[in-house]
Design goal:
Chain A: Part of the ABC transporter complex PstSACB involved in phosphate import. Responsible for energy coupling to the transport system. The complex is a heterodimer. Chain A has helices at residues 44-51, 81-87, 102-112, 118-131, 135-138, 151-164, 181-194, 207-213, 231-236, 241-247; strands at residues 4-15, 18-29, 33-37, 61-69, 72-73, 88-91, 169-173, 199-203, 216-221, 224-230. By secondary structure, chain A is an alpha/beta fold. The two termini of chain B are 56 Å apart. The chains are: A alpha/beta, B mainly alpha.
Chain lengths: 252, 401
């Protein structure tokens, strides 16, 4: 149990009347990459957004059950959602850098957390960009607008931005779905390096990507968790018929 | 397979021949001509206004000077104080004033030849007059220059006394008055409108937004005369009770009233700009652990800078050109002071108040048109500077190079 980072107990989510997640229970291990796979609309992104309470932004969402991060229920009334999101960062499907300079994009997170010292900020910016393997490409133009970067660079910038607030957990919602194979492989390498320090949960449509990058894989279907296990096991001898069908491409 | 779709056209040169689409062609032409027409109209308005003010420039040297000369030679026509003072008011009531006014009232016809014509027809007929005068006496030339300089030089004084023995057209006080009112109005309207827009676009629930937005926009439908009346009757007394200043109608009251007129414009446009900021920015910021306020101020607001800037410019334009509120609420005294609680007179109000009382073609008349051109040039320059310089800087500052 010591290595469990997130424990989900009977989590259900309703969009108004519609039940989008049905009694999900699973455990996510520390410092590992967990991939969430499943056909579109199966609730994997919704589940991911539950972990840092991004679903709070959507009106008429009701959530029941427990989401324990390090043993603390993040849906408890006394928990501040802002502090949760500081600890649980998120990278979105579509790269969404702010319309600011590259430097400002990274420094934004530390700044709102009260870091004002210029040297400290510079250091954070540099380490974050290095961690996200984009430093060499942008170090000479930190003052330029982030909107001028290529798609792959933007996405890595977004990852760097997430790293800059030093989270524990990084959620990635199809981070490479809009990128070319070279950028994708860079992101995948990055994920591989980052798991030393962070717990990573990644949603992906790309089966090979899940197989390549993750240690554990969870298969969602129609709002239910069908199966979760070691990636090797899921891809070689899945226990459920549905999982096997999906992985082998027979449906979905 | 293809039999399903009856294809008559073969892929031949004939079927691909360039077609002339009449309706499209016409629509395109009409739309473009309408667009150019509107631009032309704006230019023509400016040209007309400016042309009317021409007599006070180089071409008009003779006219202004002529006035001076006639002043010397014929005291009745311009110079003598009583006539002067009465002139604008009594102009309509001819039978009332007989002795003194006669030469003037009737003068308009016979005297025109020497006196008014050059002014009325300004640039065209002025030239020969200049020549003839200069040919006659060298003294006249020097006097001419002196006269023109006089009108010109009074522009940079502080006294606006257009109707007097020595008319002084000091634009400084008017300019300062206009700027004072504009600054006060924008200091009030800008933050209020932008914060209101920020609230409705970032914090208010959908229902609140649906209520607040139309109500503020309704303020734009208020005729300015109503706002002016409200300022005159209610606001002036209210603020005098609070601040206890002397002149009841002053720049501050005018500014407050004009802020009421500018708020809906600034609000509507900045609200649209703020709402147009992609949701992904907000999400990214929130996911970084920013609070709602931080997100609104450090992400949404900077991202909407260009739109908010445009909103502020339109607001300034509205205040700058606002006539009725200025007439009713600012006190209309051309005083030069830094005190916001002194009465002021704005450019627009000056035109509005005095245009009906001037003599067609007179220097005063030309000066009013010159003020009109100034208003136009100022707004134009403001917009140009804002558009090309400040906006670029702001964007660079908030959004990177």
């Amino acid at each position: 149990m010591k290595n469990i980072k997130i424990e989900v107990k009977d989590l259900s989510l309703y969009y108004g009347e519609k039940k989008a997640l049905k009694e999900i229970s699973l455990e996510i291990p520390r410092n590992k990459v967990t991939a969430l796979i499943g056909p579109s609309g199966c609730g994997k992104s919704t589940f991911l957004r539950c972990i840092n309470r991004m679903n709070d932004l959507i009106p008429d969402v009701k959530i029941t059950g427990q989401m324990l991060v390090e043993g603390i229920d993040i849906y408890d009334k006394n928990v501040d959602v802002v502090n949760i999101r500081k600890k649980i960062g998120m990278v979105f499907q579509k790269s969404n850098p702010f319309p600011k300079s590259i430097y400002e994009n990274i420094a934004y997170g530390p700044k709102i957390n009260g870091i004002k010292d210029k040297n400290e900020l510079d250091e954070i910016v540099e380490t974050s960009l290095r961690q996200a393997a984009i430093w060499d490409e942008v170090k000479d133009r930190l003052g330029d607008s982030a909107m001028g970067l290529s798609g792959g660079q933007q996405q890595r910038l977004c990852i760097a931005r997430t790293l800059a607030v030093s989270p524990d957990i990084i959620l990635m919602d199809e981070p490479a779905s809009a990128l070319d194979p070279i950028s994708t492989s860079k992101i995948e390498e990055l994920v591989h390096e980052l798991k030393e320090q962070y717990t990573i949960i990644i949603v992906t449509h790309n089966m090979q990507q899940a197989a390549r990058t993750s240690d554990y894989t969870a298969f969602f279907y129609l709002g239910e968790l069908i199966e979760i296990g070691k990636t090797n096991a899921i891809f070689t001898k899945p226990e459920q018929k549905q999982t096997e069908d999906y992985i082998t491409g027979r449906f979905g | 397979m293809n039999s399903q779709f009856p294809i008559n056209q073969n892929f031949t040169k004939e079927s691909l021949k360039k077609q002339f689409r009449l309706s499209e062609f016409l629509a395109e032409k009409i739309i473009s001509s309408v667009a150019f027409l509107s631009i032309t109209i704006i230019v023509l308005i400016f040209v007309f206004v400016f042309k009317e003010s021409l007599p006070i420039f180089n071409f008009g040297k003779s006219d202004a000077a002529k006035t001076e000369i006639t002043t010397d030679s014929k005291p009745e026509s311009y110079g003598s104080t009583p006539t002067e003072e009465l002139k604008p008011e009594t102009y309509g009531a001819e039978p009332a004033a007989k002795g003194e006014l006669k030469p003037e009232t009737y003068g308009s016809e016979p005297v025109t030849q020497e006196d008014l014509k050059p002014e009325t027809y300004g640039d065209v007929k002025a030239e020969p007059t200049v020549e003839s005068t200069s040919n006659e006496t060298p003294e006249a030339v020097s006097e001419n220059k002196e006269g023109a300089d006089k009108t010109w030089s009074t522009f940079f004084t502080t006294e606006w006394v257009p109707v007097s023995e020595h008319p002084r057209f000091g634009l400084i006080a008017l300019l300062v008055g206009t700027l004072k009112v504009t600054i006060i109005a924008m200091l009030i309207a800008g933050p209020l409108a932008i914060l209101a827009a920020l609230y409705t676009s970032c914090f208010a629930s959908k229902r609140t937004k649906e209520i607040i937005k139309p109500i503020i926009e309704m303020l734009a439908a208020f005729p300015s005369v109503v706002i002016g009346f409200f300022a005159l009757m209610v606001l002036a007394t209210f603020f005098q009770d609070i601040f206890g200043y002397d002149s009841r109608l002053n720049a501050f009251i005018g500014g407050v009233a004009m802020a009421l007129a500018a708020i809906p414009i600034i609000y509507t446009i900045s609200e649209d700009a703020l709402s147009a900021v992609p949701k992904t920015y907000t999400e990214a910021s929130l996911a970084l652990g920013a609070s709602k306020w931080q997100t609104a101020f450090f992400v949404t607001l900077p991202a909407a800078t260009p739109g908010i800037f445009a909103a502020l410019l339109l607001g300034i334009g509205r205040v700058f050109g606002e006539t009725m509120i200025a007439l009713m609420a600012t006190g209309n005294a051309a005083l030069l002071s830094a005190n916001p609680f002194e009465s002021v007179r704005t450019f627009a109000a000056t035109i509005g108040a005095e245009m009906a009382e001037t003599v067609f073609g007179e220097t005063h008349y030309s000066v009013l048109f010159f003020i009109g051109s100034l208003l136009f040039i100022f707004s134009f320059a403001l917009n140009a500077v804002a558009e090309f310089y400040v906006k670029g800087k702001l964007i660079k500052k908030f959004q990177g190079k």
